[in-house]
Design a protein that fits this description.
Elements lengths: L1 H24 L13 H5 L3 H9 L4 E4 L4 H6 L4 E5 L10 H10 L3 E5 L7 H13 L2 E5 L19 E5 L8 E5 L5 E8 L2 E6 L13 H11 L11 E4 L8 H8 L2 H19 L17 H14 L3 H20 L4 H15 L2 H11 L9 H14 L1
Parallel strand pairs: 1-9, 2-3, 2-9, 3-8
Antiparallel strand pairs: 4-5, 6-7, 7-8
Helix pairs in contact: 5-6, 11-14, 12-13, 13-14
């Protein structure tokens, strides 16, 4: 007992020293854990903007495609339009958009490469000409200067204006290289905003202060919920990548398919038997019926169950005689069975059946004969 107490004391001392060392030299601090974006965020790159506008009291409605009827029937007076998703070949589209802006509408027009064909180029040029804007497609990257406090603009389009920027009339924003990337032109009671891909609106960029300030200026600075209920976004959606998309993006799915097919073939080849005649195993001759019944009788005698085996046959004989001949009492059944056994059997067979129906103790050396008698009776009933 004393040794156990000494060992316990030493163990507690060592643990106390370890705890003291850990408290002195180790420090517990928070660890950063990267959480991947949700499927909704991967499908909608403007998700943060949508939630921000809704929290500020401006409902957001999103469409994948639009035309002149979409704008003319929309309740919203503020529309974000991706040029590749609008049907520009309607002849009166440009005239209606100009009139719609003059009557108080706000149109945020985002340009992309997909729409710069001959007809649509004419339509967009006619629209820009009304506001003194010229759009130039193409990347103009210059890395001589980088301003971390400038908003994030796309590099696909640049713009020129035909008049000097004037307060309340025309407003331009340049990137860190002095290239105009965004133009806001006021006309009547409304305004037109033109830019390339608005990277400053993406969920991954909106947290930066310059991007947030510009977004507030364009979307919320002069908009009220009462007279301009919400924004209508006509923009494309990004399909969220699942497992197959991830495999296609990071690897070759053909290799995976070939490997799976080879594994399937090998597995089937291993479990399916070869074609041809089935080899038969030679059956070993069983023991004679008498020996099997004697062995079964010895087993039942050991556990005192010979009467149970006999009673099963007796119940079957009673049921058949009752169904076919209407016999129910023991005397009637005994007389009928003795008449059957009298044709082929003798006194021994009759005595064995009488003792069986009276449920007398079964002698195991007579057990095979008793079973043979029962089977003979069942065959002849």
């Amino acid at each position: 007992m004393r040794r156990n107490l000494i060992g316990l004391g030493l163990a507690l001392t060592v643990l106390a020293l370890l705890a003291l060392l850990a408290w002195t030299f180790l420090e517990i601090g928070p660890t950063a854990r990267w959480v991947p974006p949700s499927r909704e965020a991967r499908a909608n790159e403007y998700l943060a903007l949508d939630r921000w506008l809704e929290e500020m009291g401006h409902p957001v409605r999103t469409l994948d495609f639009g035309n002149l009827d979409t704008i003319s029937t929309a309740e919203e007076r503020q529309i974000f339009l991706q040029s590749s998703l609008f049907r520009w070949w309607t002849p009166e589209a440009v005239e209606y958009l100009i009139r719609w802006i003059e009557e108080g509408g706000t149109l945020f027009l985002v340009l992309d490469y997909a729409e710069w064909d001959i007809w649509i180029g004419r339509q967009l040029s006619a629209l820009f000409e009304e506001f003194g804007i010229t759009a130039n497609a193409g990347t103009t990257l210059q890395w001589s200067r980088n301003d971390p406090y400038a908003p994030s603009f796309g590099q696909d389009f640049s713009f020129e204006v035909s008049q000097e920027p004037a307060a309340g009339d025309l407003f331009t924003l340049e990137d860190w290289n002095g290239v105009i990337r965004l133009v806001k032109a006021e006309r009547g009671m409304g305004r037109l905003i033109v830019s390339g891909r608005p990277r400053f609106l993406l969920s991954t960029e909106l947290g930066n202060a310059p991007n947030a300030h510009l977004t507030w200026t364009l979307f919320l600075s002069n908009a009220t919920t009462a007279d301009k209920p919400g924004w209508l976004f006509i923009r494309g959606t990004t399909r969220a990548q699942g497992l197959l998309g991830t495999l296609f993006r990071h690897g070759n799915l053909v290799v995976v398919g070939v490997a799976a097919l080879a594994l399937l073939v090998v597995g089937l080849w291993a479990v399916i038997p070869m074609f041809g005649l089935v080899r038969r195993d030679n059956e070993k001759p069983g023991k004679p019926l008498r020996e099997r019944f004697i062995a079964e009788g010895r087993f039942l005698k050991r556990y005192g169950a010979l009467g149970f085996y006999r009673d099963v046959y007796i119940r079957d004989i009673r049921r058949r005689l009752a169904r076919k001949e209407g016999l129910s009492t023991d005397d009637e059944i005994t007389a009928r069975v003795l008449s059957i056994l009298g044709k082929t059997g003798g006194e021994r067979e009759s005595r064995i059946f009488v003792s069986a129906i009276r449920k007398e103790p079964v002698k195991y050396w007579e057990f095979p004969k008793m079973i043979s008698i029962f089977k003979t009776i069942l065959e002849r009933i």
